[in-house]
Design goal:
2 domains, two-stranded antiparallel sheet, 1 helix
Length: 94
Amino acid sequence: MRTTRFSSLAFGARYTARTAATFKQMSRGITVAVLFALLGTTVIAQSTTGSIYGQITDQSGALVVGCRVTALNSATGVNYPGISDAQGNYTVLT
């Protein structure tokens, strides 16, 4: 009788240890899946374009209209042109 009782306790302990280990593995898997889901949406939200804008004035503070503006990406050598409008404002889209 004692042996049977000991066996059933040992089996119960092993079962509990397995359950805890399985739960731990499942919780790790769920955590990793949630992190990938969150990081994935963050990466999608990133943009590969931008803009540069401002206003062109001369030394006296007067607006400069129709002035050509060029932004150079020194890493790639690509030029991005822009031109100032009637209020001296320019925008360069990259």
